[in-house]
Design brief:
Length: about 350
């Protein structure tokens, strides 16, 4: 189970969760773009067509782009923390019990991470990380999937050449990223950045929720699809990130050592094939009254399932967080207005 799984609405509890999101979800007219074009419109120009020879590689491309985009941001702000908590490492960990894996394979992974840190902190070009990003994306697919150990092709993961068309499209996407995202209106050298942000106790409630990057009050979700419309699931996922972050604050995530609160002011999609950024100002649309009522209803959808927290004893103060969640469910809290990044 994860946020993505909950948005499939397979159980009644998941449907209740989705209904809360639907009650406050924005429509496409609530979004605006960095370029000034109408959001999700035919005004967009497709600059990186999908020419992949194997359509299943679309997911691989998307994950590899996520890595490269984060590495480029890290290079600007000089942050080696971009390699902390990589999902690809979980893929390596998942492979450790395979009968045919050995020290050779683990010794290949560490130099990849060291190379990332060298490029990010030094003068080397990001192009040196394209192949590594694809390798990490392959391992992340292992981490996120249910796999039969006997079907894992270790040569594919570690030795075979990475798909050339994936690398070519990554190169074009990163050129667009440089032009349309790596600009002062979006990010500067002294920007506040969080890579792969989680949402503390709230992430545990949905058994996994993490976004791509947080910059100066804006949470970004990178998309490599050629479809420029607003998809229901993507829309609900973005608004869920915001609400889970807010819930983590009122549940005391930072106070009780379950993770940081990000204070999201906007959520946004970056469309990598178009070079377009689509923003939604959550703090302008959510009045304190609406936010409080939404958090109450959202917390009710987790009732009876909070026992999952008992698995995390030792990470933070579970009892205190559960007590705070009860207070939120009962409406025994006030919305706090925090300083903005603007």
């Amino acid at each position: 189970m994860s946020l993505s799984s909950k948005l499939l609405g397979k159980t009644q509890q998941d449907k209740n969760f989705m209904n809360v999101l639907l009650s406050v979800a924005p429509n496409k007219n609530d979004y605006y773009t960095q370029s000034g074009k109408k959001a999700f419109s035919n005004d967009y120009i497709l600059k990186v067509p999908n020419n992949l020879s194997v359509m299943q590689n679309s997911t691989l491309l998307g994950t590899a782009f996520d890595y490269l985009a984060r590495f480029r941001i890290a290079k600007l702000i000089k942050s080696e923390y971009v390699t902390s908590g990589l999902m690809s490492y979980q893929g390596m960990y998942k492979l450790k019990d395979l009968p045919n894996i050995n020290e050779y394979h683990f010794n290949k992974y560490l130099p990849w991470v060291e190379k990332i840190e060298k490029v990010v902190m030094g003068r080397a070009q990001l192009a040196e990380l394209y192949e590594i990003a694809v390798r990490l994306a392959m391992l992340e697919q292992i981490a996120r999937a249910r796999i039969n150990p006997s079907t894992v092709d270790l040569d594919y993961l570690f030795n075979d050449p990475v798909p050339g068309d994936v690398v070519r499209e990554l190169e074009m996407m990163m050129y667009l990223f440089e032009e349309n995202f790596m600009i002062p209106e979006v990010i500067k050298k002294n920007s506040s950045v969080s890579f792969n942000p989680h949402f503390g106790a709230s992430s545990l409630l949905v058994e996994g929720a993490d976004a791509d990057v947080y910059i100066n009050g804006t949470l970004y979700d990178f998309k490599t699809t050629k479809d420029n419309s607003l998809k229901k699931k993507d829309n609900l996922q973005l608004i869920a990130y915001y609400l889970l972050d807010e819930l983590s604050y009122y549940a005391g995530s930072e106070e009780f050592d379950f993770g940081d609160y990000h204070s999201i002011e906007r959520v946004a999609f970056y469309k990598a094939r178009y070079g377009e950024i689509e923003y939604y100002d959550v703090q302008k649309h959510f009045t304190p009254e609406v936010l409080k009522e939404t958090l109450i209803e959202l917390t009710k959808t987790f009732e009876g399932n909070e026992g999952n927290f008992r698995r995390y004893v030792g990470i933070g103060d579970v009892d205190e967080v559960l007590n705070r969640l009860t207070q939120v469910r009962n409406g025994s809290f006030d919305i706090v207005t925090l300083p903005t990044h603007s």
